[in-house]
Design brief:
This protein is α/β, with parallel strands linked by helices and 378 residues long. It contains 13 helices and 15 strands. The strands form two sheets. Strands 1, 2, 3, 4, 5, 11, 12, 13, 14 and 15 form a ten-stranded mixed beta sheet that branches. 36% of the residues are buried.
Length: 378
């Protein structure tokens, strides 16, 4: 048989498949109407498992492919049912309130809490996120959250992820524990330098101060040193300020070039970080949820039952709606009914009804579900 003949037959089969698929989706809508009327859950795992068992039994050597085909059909049918079922969810209520509170233009002013001191990377992020904002400096990430939660500051800026050193787990833990919303984010290129008092040489240094994230991002350089103590502190700018004010000619700080000028220090070495492609993402958080125009990124924290196929079911929901997953990271949870939680970021908008329906379905099916926000990254 010629290839053209084979393709003609495939086209005929595809036409039949499309008609059968549309008929199946129409029946799924009838199922949704029945479930809605009788207050039944969308997911019927027992029924799906029975169908998959029958499919694999009848598919011979192609059972693996048949299994995935029908699994995808189930996901598509459930996604459509989720759009049609009128069952109240927390995420739908939060999204509605967020959209009502947002506006076409993101605020350019406001009181914003920032961890560190003048010259900190967080301060640079503040200036980018809120160009005319009034920055309030605090000592810790917890203090940033407290300032926002108490209403003292409308906004807070926190580092959440670094390209070299991974997620800032302390910030994710705070997002889990406190009901804050992400309303915007930005990405900064980070350049670390070794700074000391004027005239100090590398051979004079016995101790180096910096933030733990910066220490991790310069680990190769630091591991090559001998006889020098590396001491974590609150912030890279705090480290520079402390070295400048101490007058200690045996101390140095891993900080930024602007901090050298700001605190009267000199650069001893400007090639100390593990990678030149070193970026840190910062998020802007608020107490009251809001979604502004142009929001195209969604952040979630979820947990589900620890069983085979659970993660696949989650990913297949995204694949069925053609949603790009930009972050998926697991974190072990001690003393919990589930062993891992997952941090997710999606390229999507809740303005799309199918996306909101998917989030509602995830809330219903996950042991833990937190919608952190839908926002734009600048």
């Amino acid at each position: 048989m010629e290839l053209s003949e084979i393709r003609t037959k495939i086209d005929a089969v595809d036409d039949q498949l499309l008609q059968l698929f549309l008929e199946r989706m129409s029946l799924a809508e009838d199922v949704a109407a029945y479930k809605n009327e009788h207050h039944l859950p969308i997911l019927n795992k027992e029924r799906e498992r029975a169908v998959l068992a029958k499919v694999t039994e009848r598919s011979g050597e192609k059972e693996r492919y048949a299994y995935h085909l029908f699994s995808t059909l189930f996901e598509l049918a459930r996604s459509r049912q989720a759009e049609l079922i009128a069952s109240p969810t927390k995420v739908a209520a939060k999204v509605k309130a967020s959209l009502a509170a947002g506006s076409e233009i993101f605020p350019q002013t406001g009181l914003v809490a920032c961890q560190g001191v003048e010259g900190a990377n967080s301060q640079v992020a503040c200036d980018r996120l809120l160009p005319r904002g009034n920055v309030v400096y605090v000592k810790t990430f917890e203090a940033v959250v407290s300032a926002v939660e108490s209403g003292f500051c409308k906004f807070g800026v926190l580092p959440i992820e670094n390209s070299s050193n991974g997620s800032v787990r302390a910030v994710y833990e705070l997002l889990q524990e406190h009901n804050l919303s992400i309303v915007r984010s930005t990405r900064l290129c980070i350049r670390h330098e070794l700074l000391a008092l004027p005239g100090v040489k590398m051979s004079d240094i016995t101790e180096i101060y910096s933030h733990e994230q910066a220490i991790g991002q310069c680990s190769k350089f630091l591991n090559g040193l001998t006889g020098i103590r590396v001491i974590p502190c609150d912030n890279t700018a705090v480290a520079a300020k402390m070295v400048a004010e101490s007058g200690n000619r045996h101390a140095a700080a891993i900080s930024s070039h602007p901090c050298a000028a700001l605190y009267g220090l000199e650069c001893i070495d400007d090639h100390i970080q593990n990678s030149d492609n070193n970026y840190t993402r910062f998020i802007c958080v608020t107490k009251d949820p809001a979604i502004y125009a142009g929001a195209n990124r969604i952040s979630l924290i979820i947990a589900f039952e620890n069983r085979p196929g659970a993660l696949y079911e989650l990913l297949s929901k995204l694949a069925a709606l053609d949603i790009n997953l930009t972050k998926l990271e697991s974190c072990p949870v001690a003393g919990s009914d589930f062993e891992f939680i997952f941090f997710l970021e999606l390229d999507a908008s809740v303005q799309d009804p199918s996306v909101l329906a998917m989030l509602e379905e995830m809330e219903r099916s996950c042991a833990q579900f937190q919608f952190l926000g839908n926002y734009a990254e600048i």
